[in-house]
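Mods, move this if it's the wrong board.
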Amino acid sequence: MEVWLLILGMALITFAIRYSLFAFPELRFPPLVRQGLHYVPTAVLSAIVLPGMLIPDGQQWAFNSENAYLLAGVVTIAIAAVTRHLLATIGGGLLVFFALRALLGQLPV
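Not the wrong board. Structure tokens:
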């Protein structure tokens, strides 16, 4: 029962936060807050992706040439910086990742 109350509470809080922007359309953020909100997607994506690249097994840091996640991540960042094209970044990153996994013998059988 406590788990369901927790889930319901989180759902209500999430709804209230998102609904408040529609309920008060005249609400305007100061320029400093708007500028800070511009960086939220980058920060969230980094917080999700970087642990998987740097600690692929979830136990220890892996700063070595055997870490296909880290190597492919670095190449993907380079592809994004050069092309500035979302599909090229995703496709190139996936190709590099699976090629590295195959070369390193890490693909599941």
